[in-house]
Amino acid sequence: MSFNSRQYEWGDVTVVLGGRDITGIRGIKYTEKGEKEALFAKGRYPHSIQTGNITIEGEITVLQSELIALEKAGNGSVLGLNVDGVVSYGNPSAGDAMTTDRIVGISFTESPKEMKQGDKNMEISIPFIALAVKPNA
């Protein structure tokens, strides 16, 4: 049995939003958060940890051309879009096992644009919320 310790590289990441391969992507981040709080009763120490709602938040960083394509798909704004995303890590041609996360119900919460002196391109980070992350889906 051989052990492969090769780590994924940025070139091994593929992101598909709404069925479209996003080639102008510069970054993606998504987090699953769970509400938790200590339950206190008699004494100084908690008796248990109670759990509440789970939320999915993230952001996708794209080039201006990708933002324009997303805006066209959303009839002029990304705020009206509701898409699923697929994030795949790995390169099967290099012998990697593929790892895939399906992000269900992505809805963008802001549509920022920014450039400053000296920039050679516009890079936009668009925050989103989602319904769920399904690993290996």
From TrEMBL:
> Where does the source fall among the domains of life?
Bacteria
Protein's recorded name: Phage tail protein
Upper lineage is: Bacteria, Pseudomonadati, Bacteroidota, Flavobacteriia, Flavobacteriales
